[in-house]
Amino acid sequence: MKSQKFDENYATITPRVFLLGLDMNNIGEILNSFIQQSKTDNLKWSTYPKEYLDLNMKVSFGQGVPARVSWISFLAPEMQTSNGFYPVYLFYKKENKLVLAYGISETSEYPQTWPNEVVNNHKKISEYIDNPARYGDSFLYKSYVPNINSNKVDFIDDDNQMISNEAVENDLKFIINSYKKFVSMEIKNESSPISQGLFYMEKQLEDFIIENWNNTEFGKKYDLIEEEGRVISQQYPTTIGKIDILAKDKKTKSYVVIELKKNQTSDDTIGQLSRYMGWIKEHKKDEGVKGIIVAGKFDEKLKYAKTMVPNSEAFLYEVNFQIKEYK
Fold it and tell me: Who wins on pLDDT, 35 or 8?
């Protein structure tokens, strides 16, 4: 892993990805392209967005040969399409049905699933489509019938009523927001598989930064805090919680609060950083305390929120994997 200074000027530009002249930041146009491509032998997905509404977005048209059911999944951290539960679009080609579903992975059975309010109040896809090609155990939220007219996809419902793009977008926002709330509750539950997985990844990143301190950007400007020959910077205790990493500026000797952006909102991240900076300012009598956020990615919300916290910076981390022959 390596840290990289966050370039705010670069971050203000949200890149648009175009496919067949379409704006791929808009779910209506994403679906427009997705449906049309699903009816071809083109299996390429790299032009589609990698994120949507702060969730990871995955697209598949098949592997090697076109799939009978193409899909778009929206995933929380630690979830995979093959191992997890998530909102998903499933396009059943034979039936010409686009289903927005409470998705459940088929490849591996995840230890947890959707809450009872979903399971008890929504029919399975296998109850809606006779002998579905795949994903019959996922739960139906909405279904649409796509019609292609002059390279434009329109949607109607099962009663042949037109469905507006706004309605389609609102349907997706609803299921995604419900998903986020449920996953957030599971993260707060320390015994849940989601929480345990995130804790493991965050702990690994913390450990890496501490163990490789002198080789990071941090080591050039800041010192770890030692007490009786032992580093006490990691998970530094305060009366309001533990700071991920507390360091000191080599030149000014002021404290530096370093927080990893965990699976939380940008506002939560900024709020947490601000609280710890305030605690250090009061309890360590340090007017020059600095705050740093470390994240794998940054969104526009975090960029603007950070402007309200003086003397703060942001860093990106990258993960590099190498495979070497064992000899």
Answer: 35
